[in-house]
Design a protein that fits this description.
The protein is mainly beta. The chain folds into 5 domains: 193 residues, Sandwich (Jelly Rolls), CATH 2.60.120; 90 residues, Sandwich (Immunoglobulin-like), CATH 2.60.40.10; 87 residues, Immunoglobulins (Immunoglobulin-like, Sandwich); 228 residues, Jelly Rolls (Sandwich), CATH 2.60.120.200; 35 residues, no CATH class. It is built from 3 helices and 47 strands. The strands form 10 sheets. Strands 31, 33, 34, 36, 41, 42, 43 and 47 form an 8-stranded antiparallel β-sheet that branches. Strands 32-35-44-37-38-39-40 form a 7-stranded antiparallel β-sheet, with no helix packed on it. A hairpin with a 5-residue loop joins β28 and β29. The chain is globular and about 90 Å long.
Length: 658
């Protein structure tokens, strides 16, 4: 049966001095699975997995013995193949097959680095998801192939798979290097004769393969293959991917770097470097591609959002970079900047000296190439660290800071228009608080409080944000989730939300997993609790606090804010639709003293917000308390007394005990 061959080369960044890992010898142990049991080198998911013989009528013949590995439902096999080094190329190949009467499941090939090999066997647990190398072994994905699919219409057949992957630059030299072969769907995939080796072809192209903005005066350059001896190189290039004659430019022999002269703007190039080795054999190279930079202005550096102190003691700096740029004009909120404290308004770098509240806004840079072609940069926000809004709900819905406007009750009251479903009750800060009534009340029908004037004013969360509110859940019988406050654009989605999840606190910024407290007590206890959600862009971490103390964190960077978002502040529900009404509505819950800050509030300040209202004291962490022997959150004479009481105790045999 004829087999087709598919090859792909992942894009890599040019490096002058390559470094090669030590592959195991052989790199793959048991490559063709000729025993129907593992030899201990491969690890596999125990479910949706088998080793099948090609003597079965539905299994195609394999030229590499008798046995195939068969897996589906995103199952996998993996093996340690050596140790990690940066920017290392590996040629990976195997044969894949389709079982008769079954759909082909697709195939993906990945490299991982790091982790603990001693726990690799645990990854076969049925409950472990396909990203087992991350969750169990502790490895990190460093390269991944495209998905390979069955290339012909035969009901049963095979095809060759070949891919060159690069280990990249994010890793620790000497860490374990892993190969993962995985089914890409719930359908079955056959695999045999897995091979990993260092390439014999030229590597490390410059411009990098896939480069979209190569300089028009770039030279073609590459590095020698890590295996074999080069007698000469042969360069072939052209402007389309069809490498059949005529139309190729061939340079034989050629020495890197090769001077291309001045290439035209905005033009694609496809090129290949063949190696003739010391045996006279020609090793055909990979096909690389790049595109020269357009003649119009192009940005390669966009301005970044800035968060500064609100007292005018810090400067804000915005910078752009790019190609084919002659003139610069910085804009604030769409208008040319004329402020006295702004410098560099016609350069690539704008500085706003002593930035303050009046300087807040959206900054862009309009550039041109001096020939009538212009381009505006992406917008960047300047924000000051401040309390943006505070709603104390003292029998009104006003923002005491005057920034986000008054709230409006959105209360359908379809059950009974004479029953207010949002009212006021005794508060914990001041005299009153909002009350979202119980579903047990006659005529109940959920309502929310919206702040329409807040639209477009809350897109700073990726620079840092803190949201806090006092809440009291009066009944443990309420639904599993209730939204305390959210910032949401009905078309673009939410910026963040703070809610109750069963008896715990939950906080999320867009693009990150949710931080949910895991407390021993159910917060639906009829008592006031302070909920606080924080996003820290420096640590790239979300955190949720309950009653002034850290309750949970989630690591990761929030999705950059969309400065076009018209997200509004909403209390008591996540969103409203005609079909479903209010999603995740609060009920039988009081809310008081809602605050929104434009920065990460310090843990000490969060604790103080709690103790200022409730009194008492809090131990916020155990930093520097290694010698706090009596666990009272301070080191004092009482701890010294405990230490002295055990002074000269000795448990050495026979010096002290005999």
């Amino acid at each position: 049966m004829k087999r087709l061959c598919f090859c792909i080369l992942t894009a890599a960044v040019f490096m002058a001095a390559p470094c090669w890992a030590t592959l195991d010898d052989p790199a793959i142990s048991d490559p063709s699975f000729e025993n129907d049991t593992w030899d201990g080198s491969w690890f596999n998911r125990t479910r949706y997995f088998s080793i099948d013989s090609d003597t079965q009528e539905t299994i195609p013949d394999t030229p590499y013995g008798e046995y195939w590995v068969k897996f589906g439902n995103s199952s996998w096999i993996f093996q340690q193949i050596g140790t990690w080094e940066p920017d290392m190329y590996l040629d990976i190949s195997m044969i894949s097959g389709k079982e008769a009467g079954m759909n082909y499941g697709g195939l993906k090939i990945s490299l991982f680095a790091g982790g603990d090999p001693s726990v690799a066997a645990d990854a076969g647990d049925n409950d472990v998801p396909p990203d087992n190398l991350v969750n169990v072994v502790g490895a990190t994905l460093v390269a991944e192939s495209q998905q390979f699919d069955y290339p012909n219409g035969d009901d049963m057949g095979t095809f060759d798979v070949a891919v060159t992957l690069n280990t990249g630059t994010e890793g620790t030299v000497g860490d374990p290097l892993w190969l993962l072969v995985q089914s890409a769907s719930s359908q079955k995939t056959l695999v045999d004769n897995v091979s990993v080796k260092l390439p014999e072809a030229a590597i490390q192209p410059y411009p990098a393969s896939g480069e979209q903005r190569a300089p028009i005066d770039a030279d073609l350059d590459w590095s020698a293959p890590p295996v074999g001896t080069v007698q000469k190189y042969v360069l072939t290039y052209r402007n389309d991917p069809n490498f059949t004659e005529p139309g190729n430019t061939v340079v034989d022999p050629v020495t890197p770097p090769y001077d291309m002269g001045t290439m035209p703007y905005d033009t694609p190039y496809y090129w290949r470097v063949d190696v003739v080795n010391n045996l006279g054999e020609t090793i055909q190279g990979y096909v690389w591609d790049f595109e020269t930079v357009p003649e119009i202005p192009v940005f390669d550096q966009q301005p970044q959002g800035q968060l500064v102190a609100d007292d005018g003691t810090e400067d804000a700096t915005f910078t752009v970079g790019g190609l084919n740029i002659t003139n610069y004009q910085w804009l604030k909120d769409g208008a040319a900047i004329t402020a006295a404290n702004a410098s560099g308004v016609n350069t690539d770098t704008l500085t706003v000296s002593g930035a303050a509240l009046a300087d807040e806004g959206t900054y862009t840079c309009l550039v041109d190439n001096g020939q009538g072609d212009s381009l505006e940069s992406e917008p960047a926000l300047l924000m000051t660290k401040r309390l943006v809004a505070e709603y104390d709900f003292e029998n009104n819905l006003a923002d005491s800071q005057g920034n986000l406007g008054d709230g409006v009750i959105v209360d359908p009251n379809t059950a009974d228009p004479n029953v207010p479903d949002i009212s006021y009750t005794t508060g914990v800060v001041g005299s009153s608080a909002l009350l979202f009534n119980s579903s047990e009340d006659p005529g109940y029908d959920p309502g929310v409080v919206e702040m329409p004037a807040s639209a477009g004013k809350l897109n700073f969360y990726d620079l840092g944000v803190t949201v806090s509110a006092w809440v009291k859940f009066n009944s443990p019988e309420t639904s599993y989730m209730g939204t305390i406050v959210t910032c949401r654009d009905e078309e673009l989605g939410y910026n963040w939300f703070l809610n109750r999840y069963y008896g715990n606190a939950r906080w999320r910024t867009t693009g990150l997993a949710t931080s949910t407290s895991d407390l021993e007590v159910d917060l639906r206890d009829g008592q006031w609790h302070l909920f606080t959600g924080v996003y820290d862009p420096d640590a790239q971490q979300t955190a949720v606090y309950v009653d002034g103390l850290l309750a949970a964190t989630t690591d990761g960077a929030a999705t950059p804010a969309n400065l076009e978002s018209q997200a509004i502040l909403r209390v008591g529900g996540r969103y409203i639709t005609e079909e479903l009404g209010i999603d995740r509505a609060l009920e039988d819950t009081a809310v008081d003293d809602l605050k929104v800050y434009s920065y990460r509030l310090d843990p000490v300040d969060i604790a103080v917000e709690y103790t200022d209202v409730m009194g008492g004291s809090l131990c916020i962490d155990d930093e520097g308390l290694e010698y706090d022997f009596n666990d009272d959150c301070e080191i004092d004479l009482a701890d010294v007394a405990i230490f002295v009481d055990q002074w000269l105790n000795c448990r050495i045999v026979p010096d002290c005990i005999n």
